[in-house]
Amino acid sequence: MEANLPLDSQLSNEQLSLNPEIRSFLKETAKWTFFISIIGFIYVGIIVIAGIAMGFSSGFMPDTGTPMPISMGAIGIVYAILGLVTLIPFLYLFRFSTNMSTALRNNSESSLTASFSNLKSHYKFYGIFIIVALGIYVLILIGVVIGFSRFM
């Protein structure tokens, strides 16, 4: 009779246990993701500071007489925005690592669930980011093809 149950019902009756080897892997993964997230936070801080510095430096640029296609202020704003956007996956990674460490230390199922939820969100962010980037690349390619077709 159990064979006729949906897969979700079958899985809910089973208990998933973390053997010592899995716990060891997750503990090491939590340490590495914590390290990566801290380095990521530092990276984001540097990018945002660089963007702000570019924005302020635009007022100190000498007038060379040749117009720039994009102002340094605009480039600074783009840097700051991109820095803040890259903060999101590092935040998910940080939350994964801290929740995983808590889950393993306290045998907390709710922390383990929160940990994997943040890991899912981390990868979901990158999946959406890649789809958007590929879409932009396609639009750029179309623009280049249209641009070159006018010269032929």
Short description:
The chain has 4 helices and no strands. The protein is an all-alpha fold and 152 residues long.
Give an overview of the whole structure:
- The mean pLDDT is about 85.
- The protein has about 150 residues and is an all-alpha fold.
- It has one domain.
- The protein starts with 6 loop residues before the first helix and ends with a helix.
- It is built from 4 helices and no strands.
Structural class per helix/strand content?
mainly alpha
**How many domain units?**
1
- SS element count, helices: 4
N-to-C span: 70 Å
Query: Could you tell me the mean pLDDT?
Result: 86
**Which percent range describes the beta-strand content?**
under 5%
Question: Which value, in Å, is the CA radius of gyration?
Answer: 24 Å
Count of DSSP E strands? 0
User: How does the major sheet shape up?
Assistant: none
Q: Runs with pLDDT <50, length 5+?
A: none
Q: Could you estimate the helical fraction of the residues in percent?
A: over 70%
Cα shape: elongated
Layout of helices and strands:
Blueprint: H1 7-13, H2 20-57, H3 72-106, H4 109-149
State the main characteristics.
single chain; 152 residues; mainly alpha; elongated
